[in-house]
User: What shape does this take?
Amino acid sequence: AATNARGVEIAFLLDNVLSEPLITESSPVEESNLWLRIGQGYAMMNTESAYSKKFEDFYAARPEYVNQMMGRTEKYLFYVVEEVQKRGMPTEIALLPMIESAYNPQAQSRSRAVGIWQFIPSTGKYFGLEQNWWADHRRDVVSSTQAALDYLEKLHTMFGSWELALAAYNAGEGTVSRAIARNVRAGLPTDYDSLTLPLETEQYVPKLQAIKNIVTNPEQYGLNINTIPNQAYFAEIDPPFQIDAKLAASLAEISDEEFALLNPSYKRPIIASKNNTHKILLPVSAIDTFRINLANNEESLTKWSVYNAKRGENIASIASKFNISLDRLRNINSLSNDNHLSNPLHLLVPSTEDSADEINVSQLATQKTQSPTFGAKIVHVTHKIKRGETLSTVARKYGTDTRTLMKVNRLKSCKIKAGQIIKISTTPERAKTKRI
Assistant: This one.
């Protein structure tokens, strides 16, 4: 039967969408211009080189590209600056996604790195960015920012300078470690400028310097960069158990494009998650609108259901049965170009009133890799911090993220100490195997 959310209690929904913009009490508010705030937080040494001049000329010759990049940046930069300064990091780090992805959360490289911070699959998983049938959290601006800053902090501790940390972020820890070892054996300095690194990595810090120079003095390069308000653009909320992306955008009275730019990690037309822990981002100005419209909404929150497709079933026939184009059915369900299914699969399809083989999404059990899963039980445990543990390593043990742990435990920073007790929400399996 088709999923219908009319019976969901409105009071419950309202309780779960109440939120605060992602802003802390320590946020500087004396400056109304975010660029000025960033400039006040610069802490890396300025360097000039042929490489930095090369990239300054590159950006100066492409004002349309710079404007497009800055247009995307306006949505995310305040949040990134907040998190960077919360950790005491140089604000230059907040400019890094400009050279990684031009602040495009949908960016994808040939090495399968995605998101504004360009995580490859393995590094993303290591830092707790889940990649499943429903979503790829390497594209999630909040989660990927936390993971990237965790990684950069680790690299800074390992190599002792932000320049070397950035080099390792680009080329990998092993590449930088080997370059340092070669210079040590040769009796040479081991700073960034003295190492022999891949060309892309040699240009990496100079490219960031070029971006820094341009956003600090755009007029010098014939560019016009709009002022960005020093305030949160978006807020994070807990949506209903499942809701169509189009409906969520409509209830917030924003465009589908705006919704997608703020929630780029979701891969399906339904906003849902494996463990029912999903969040959505909305413009701060749209939060109240979303709450009011949700409370007054009398329609189903989703127009999709799950169809139990049998092995060998013809994909074109399934598309015809549910009045959906074959290409759209393939795209929504990440299907191959085969004409028949090689294995039984649960497929997302448009809801119909007479589809006896449909399964209620909320009752879907654990399936194979490509199938949706819901309903994982969550338990609450405590963890005693051991010597050498970081908040990031603890989060990975329990399948959560550092920001969630900070919020649950009301931590003002990621710093923890041995013997400290923290509260964690996790699955029974992880609680059983990882609890200390």
Observations:
- The longest helix spans residues 63-86.
